[in-house]
Amino acid sequence: PDWEILSVSGEEQLRRVFKFRNFAQALAFTNKVGELAEAENHHPAILLEYGKATISWWTHAIGGLHKNDFIMAARTDSAYH
Amino acid sequence: PDWEILSVSGEEQLRRVFKFRNFAQALAFTNKVGELAEAENHHPAILLEYGKATISWWTHAIGGLHKNDFIMAARTDSAYH
After folding, report:
1. CB within 8 Å: B43 and A23
2. Does this complex have an ipTM over 0.90?
3. A27 touches chain B (CB under 8 A)
4. Are A47 and B15 a contacting pair, CB within 8 Å?
5. Alpha-carbon gap, residue B10 to A6, rounded angstroms
6. What gap in Å lies between CA B63 and CA B31, rounded to an integer?
7. CATH assignment at residue A48
8. What's the domain count of chain B?
9. Model confidence band, residue B81 (pLDDT cutoffs 50, 70, 90)
10. Chain B within 8 Å of A49 (Cβ-Cβ)?
11. pLDDT at A43 > cutoff 70
């Protein structure tokens, strides 16, 4: 429910902001999501800031969203909890 | 020379794009910059993407750039080389 679908340069993306208490925790989450990404060879954009990581999933090859992006979004949620 | 100064929501920021061969290398660099940030308790925004990390330094408390941001930019360059 916390994922938004937005259009970036004409491509739909799934995006969610995850909140943390500090930079270190946001960086730790970035690494967790990085592991998921490497495992599937499918990579998000991650905007890492103090207390926050914004994750965006989309499939550049098809210029938008594929079922796999929704699966990765669900896995990202699991990594957060 | 590769850092740009841009205005984001009325605040000047130093920004540079660092290129890598893949996601894992960009993530490793993100962690290096994260260590620098934690050591100084001064935190950038990092946009991590496949093969690329975009680092932005600024000082929110003063709404723009402080000498320290330029020092952190130089340290970021050193971490890249």
Report:
1. yes
2. yes
3. yes
4. no
5. 24
6. 26
7. 3.30.1360.20
8. 1
9. confident
10. yes
11. yes
